[in-house]
Specification:
Bound molecules: iron/sulfur cluster
Number of helices: 9
Number of strands: 5
Structural class: mainly alpha
Shape: flat
Strand content: 5-15%
CATH class of the largest domain: Alpha Beta
CATH topology of the largest domain: Alpha-Beta Plaits
Distance between the termini: 73 Å
Order of helices and strands: HEHEEHEEHHHHHH
Radius of gyration: 25 Å
Amino acid sequence: MYGTGLLKGMAITLKYFLSRKITVQYPEQMPELQERFRGRLYLEFEKCIVCGMCTKACPNGVLSLEDARDENTKKKKLISYTIDHQYCMFCNLCVENCPGNCLHFNHDFELTQFNRPDIKDVYHRPPEMDQVSPQASTPGSGDANEPEPGITEAALKKQKKMDALMTALDKNPVKVLSRYVDGEEDAQILADIVQADRGKAEKLVELMADDQDKARKVAVAFVNKEKKQRQSQTEGGEKREHE
Ligand code: SF4
Ligand code: SF4
């Protein structure tokens, strides 16, 4: 029959017109990411055993490392590690092949940079990893000293991001926080919370710099808890008035 296709098409259009909108107003609103989402690849420097499996596994030559021989232990040590994100296709082969479990993906998908060299993450060996205790530096003395966590460029970047976020939060909390909760009223409640509690502000800022998804969940949890408290306070007041 003529017109059936047209009617079917109109029915589909109407169905989607009336269904819940799933478009996210990025960047004001951050998308909900799945747990296994692959964003920025990062390295736990201090765990790397310099086996080179990751560089061999990567089909795109994203990863490169520089190593040297430790004069005391005669073992290889990592000097620097480079991740050139622009060529990464998120295949996960490096992560799967790393025996030290030191490569991971986080949820940071905002990898765009103005300058091409800035896309690279270069990790340098922190000097703390070469500071050995007198006992450990004696050849054959047993356990080597425990390396301290690496100071990476990524960590420095994160710190800078956190400082910038904290400044923005101090200047205009409602505007910054409206990205993490729904509506201005919730943003105002959250602003009151973080202004009253510096610890919560710092926790939230760290999550904002690290994991947007978690930051949103924590922000919503803070607001819901505060709302409940306010509601119970109101109900308590009303009860007392009636008594
Ligand atoms: S995810 Fe794939 S392309 Fe990206 S660095 Fe790892 S092995 Fe290379
Ligand atoms: S595979 Fe893992 S342990 Fe081996 S060099 Fe790469 S990151 Fe280091």
